[in-house]
Amino acid sequence: MNKTIAILLAAGKSERFRNETPKPFLILGGKAIYQYSLSVFETHPEIDEIVFVVPQEMLLVENEKLKKEKRLKTIHLVEGGETRFQSVKNALDHLGANFKLVLIHDAARPFITKDLIDKCIQNLSQNKAVSCAIESTDTLVFANEKGFANSFPDRSKLYRIQTPQAFHLDVLKKGYSLASKEEKTDFTDDGSMISHYNLAPIFLIPGNEKNIKITFPFDLEIAEQILLKKRS
Ligand code: CTP
Ligand code: MG
Q: Count of domains in the chain?
């Protein structure tokens, strides 16, 4: 009942990256991008089990791989959905009743650290929902439909959301149930969904500038540089 589960999302179509192989399965420094975060979760002492969400066409081959390698933890392989929302929902539908806390992470962010996971879990003792976020270094602007800048929000109050995000599972499930009922499935992260239904304040904790999300091919070049630096 008190277990903690990590959901690792790798089932997107990588449309912006424009590559046939989905980006979590591209090679970075000799191994698939998703393997970096999978291994951080697998070796973290407070993560009990992992749900690894993959595209339907990867299910067989990933299942074979998981069976062949010696794993430290139970890894549940789950088929993703059309949207990120549906992929998380598939993972949640797969869970039994043993879990209390859940961390959700984009497999496209290889540089998650033990420290970020620690901080998420620690902060769940006082909060129902926690998200990593970093300060925005760029000035952001609301634009109108004609492409003109409309208003400039105060940069000092703006953050960029990262993952991991962490939740009490009952709160997250409530959000997914409400959103599913009204078929609102376009949330790009789980914090915004919880906030939309006013289920819990999202406590922001400092993320990490290096915890980048690989979105475009250029991000993979940056990731290679970060990795070189880490390995030197
Ligand atoms: N994701 C997922 N299932 C989806 C959509 C996204 O599991 N249906 C995962 C991606 O694999 C990624 C993370 O959610 O690890 C963040 O999504 P994003 O960066 O948007 O990845 P994609 O949706 O694959 O990329 P794009 O939006 O460019 O198509
Ligand atoms: Mg996407």
A: 1
